[in-house]
């Protein structure tokens, strides 16, 4: 059956004659920003294909005249995003099978990083692997104090595959970025705040903390915000960021079919079962 969308401030999917919530919600907030929420709390807000489609929709809707910023967060208070949903992506075994999924999400993140308005990752909990790549694609990161985060792809015998490595290289000094990626360890929000990668940490009330962080920015004219954001977009375009992300995708796709990675996925699925 086709999906029926209600065109109000919050977008929730319902089957005709039944009910099934989408894996995401998009809400236009009164203060002038768009709020995208991954609503997969039971899966630690892991990204599936439906979340990818939702992110694409949010990016398109961010072009609306009265939207000055895009905020991305997760449902609940445990996880911002635990990366790609391996219970779905474990069906991909070869580099030919993995590449389309990696490229799809990388294209979304490139669209996010070059979106001509400010973007904020409101990190309401743990961020792992692809969740950190999503956060890295945003201009700002506001994180829950005491939460853990890390580019842990190396523990899975793969690299970042959605462009997060190339993006991190843009946002941190090379030694700090290289150490984070190669060690593939979880670190505290305070650690990343100390590096300047997280822009703020909060104790409670994530929406309130985010709106406080954005308060003065949202007072600015949208044309001014876009003009300043394009300074960085031109920089990234001039440094061939898109081509560097493409090389990252291909490298990850090759590692995806390695015996080490397939063994990790098999063990992960077995533990969940």
**Principal-axis shape:** globular
Number of helices: 11
Major sheet: 6 strands, mixed
Cα gyration radius (Å): 18 Å
Strand % is 15-25%
Considering DSSP H and I runs of 4 or more, what fraction of the residues is helical? 40-55%
| Count of strand segments | 12
Order of helices and strands: EEEEHEEHHEEHEEHHEHEHHHH
Unreliable segments (pLDDT under 50, ≥5 consecutive)? Answer: 1-17
Distance between the first and last residues' Cα: 31 Å
- Structural class of the helices, strands and pairings? alpha/beta
Write out the strand line-up for the largest beta sheet, numbering strands in chain order.
3-4-5-7-9-12
Molecular structure report:
The protein has 11 helices and 12 strands. With 273 residues, it is α/β, with parallel strands linked by helices. The strands form 3 sheets. It has a 6-stranded mixed sheet with strand order 3-4-5-7-9-12, with helices on both faces. A 4-stranded mixed sheet has the order 6-8-10-11. A two-stranded antiparallel sheet has the order 1-2. Strand 1 and strand 2 form a beta hairpin. Helix 4 crosses helix 5. The relative contact order is 0.13. Mean pLDDT is 92; it is low at 1-17.
């Amino acid at each position: 059956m086709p999906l029926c969308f209600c065109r109000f401030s919050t977008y929730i999917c319902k089957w005709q004659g039944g009910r099934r919530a989408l894996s995401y919600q998009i809400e236009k907030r009164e203060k002038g920003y768009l709020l995208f929420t991954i609503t997969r709390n039971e899966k630690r807000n892991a990204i599936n294909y439906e979340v990818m489609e939702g992110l694409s929709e949010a990016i398109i809707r961010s072009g609306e005249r009265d939207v000055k910023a895009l905020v991305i967060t997760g449902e609940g208070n445990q996880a911002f995003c635990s990366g790609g949903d391996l219970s779905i992506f474990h069906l991909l075994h070869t580099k030919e099978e993995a590449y389309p999924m990696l490229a799809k999400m990388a294209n979304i993140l490139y669209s996010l990083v070059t979106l001509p308005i400010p973007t904020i990752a409101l990190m309401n909990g743990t961020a792992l692997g692809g969740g950190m790549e999503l956060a890295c694609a945003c201009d700002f990161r506001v994180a829950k104090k005491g939460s853990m985060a890390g580019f842990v792809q190396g523990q899975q015998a793969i690299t970042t595959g959605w462009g997060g490595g190339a993006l991190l290289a843009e946002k941190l000094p090379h030694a700090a970025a290289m150490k984070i990626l190669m060690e593939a360890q979880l670190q505290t929000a305070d650690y990343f705040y100390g590096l300047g990668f997280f822009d703020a940490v909060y104790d409670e009330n994530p929406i309130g903390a985010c709106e406080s962080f954005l308060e003065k920015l949202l007072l600015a004219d949208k044309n001014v915000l876009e003009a300043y954001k394009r300074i960085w977009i031109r920089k990234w375009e001039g440094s061939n960021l898109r081509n560097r992300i493409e090389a990252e995708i291909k490298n990850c796709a090759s590692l995806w079919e390695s015996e080490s990675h397939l063994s990790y996925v098999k063990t992960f699925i077995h533990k969940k079962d």
